């Protein structure tokens, strides 16, 4: 009888634990979509704050920290005050560390996110930071490519980097376009149905392709 009770308790615990693991996904997906589909800064901040709350409510799931880190990196790009931009990136780095702790390893997506954060650091003070963070950006994308060369976000980030780099330094629309086109083909293979499988960047990538193919190519 005691053994039966123990087995029943174990099964109940496993069921509750499994349910708890699943509960975060609808809230995370809804909040992330709300964050990622608006360019309104106050709304973006509000949704990022919600992602932070989700990460606190479900701290044992790498996904909650991953999307919170992503949101803070994105806010840094949109913020105008230098101190706040770096503060957002401090949060992003802390959350990314938590992602790696939960996964117990780094993978292509963590390296891609590390590259994004490095690029955002560079963007705060380009003339002072390009040497350090430009190198980190390249290194993380190279590591991501070694792990999964089919990850479209590798080429999307390479494309955006080229797009915003002056033509004299190897950038410009013409040089960025092949990266965006490479990413486009790989994005087409992603369904975007599972929040545990990052798929961000597809719409932005399409926007940059339009910009690169516009009349003023440089």
Strand and helix layout:
Elements: H1 2-36, H2 41-57, H3 62-78, H4 82-103, H5 108-124, H6 126-147, H7 152-163, H8 173-187, H9 202-212
Short characterization:
It is built from nine helices and no strands.
Describe the structure.
The chain has 218 residues and is mainly α. The protein folds into two domains: 40-149; 150-218. The protein is 77% helix and 0% strand. The chain has helices at 2-36, 41-57, 62-78, 82-103, 108-124, 126-147, 152-163, 173-187, 202-212. Helix 1 runs parallel beside helix 3 (62-78) and helix 5 (108-124) packs parallel to helix 7 (152-163). The protein starts with a helix and ends in a 6-residue tail after the last helix. Residues 3-20 have low confidence and may be disordered.
Count of domain modules: 2
Q: What's the number of helices?
A: 9
The tally of beta strands, per DSSP, is 0
Intertermini distance: 78 Å
Task: Describe this protein with a few key phrases.
mainly alpha, 218 residues, globular
